[in-house]
């Protein structure tokens, strides 16, 4: 059975809510509840927690350093991984670490599945929430304060970055991405998620050594994934996401999957945490 290195990030420092740091623990329990015969994969769990002292920015900087040490190591050893946030600011550590682990740092391709662009900086953000900023840092467009929280020693080339599912954003973010010429597939233009993902992987495989996927749970329609921090109507149905992920199951170029922004406070009868488990199994599980 496949074993997937899994990192839980017990933090919600990047957003306004208090409980998204429990996602990893809850997913861990969900996996524990299943009978041994039903297992399609084994998760090897590791956890990181924020430190108690320092400012929020200092804590996030050190937390992302820790996250990046895990993903750097796994990238160097060519082990596929799973990161369970936390709010989406964990992307700074996850993908910064992959970049640090690659022989050629600019050979990471990233597919960003999200209702939001997450491409603010401190200069443009209305809320100051860092979970709305990781994309700017990953592209090398951070201001000084944001750059201090990013552990990567290189950046993702804009042509190696593809966003899918966008339906809620601010003009400053759009300008940043447009200037960088990042490909954006808006939610109402997806026209079949399987095809969109295959197309994205085909494009990235021409210039990249490895491809990562960062999934913000608010990419999914709130009817199917209510347990998120910032719901936005009009997302992909869970069924369509699972079908698309099964098409790219254990794709040889995929280095890792990150899932973020689970908020148990908004969940309904554990729907979202169960879906999270199905997502992981569909993506990484061995087909029986
Ligand atoms: Mn996000």
Question: What are the salient characteristics of this protein?
Answer:
single chain; binds manganese (II) ion; globular; alpha/beta; 288 residues; 9 helices; Arginase, Chain A
What is the compact description of this entry?
By secondary structure, the chain is of the alpha/beta class.
If you had to describe this structure to a student in words, what would you say it looks like?
The chain is of the alpha/beta class and 288 residues long. It has a single domain (2-284), classed as Arginase, Chain A (3-Layer(aba) Sandwich). The protein contains 9 helices and 8 strands. An 8-stranded parallel β-sheet has the order 2-1-3-8-7-4-5-6, sandwiched between helices. The longest helix is centred in the first third of the chain and has 21 residues, at 56-76. The radius of gyration is 17 Å and the shape is globular. Manganese (II) ion is lined by residues 88, 114, 116, 118, 216, 261.
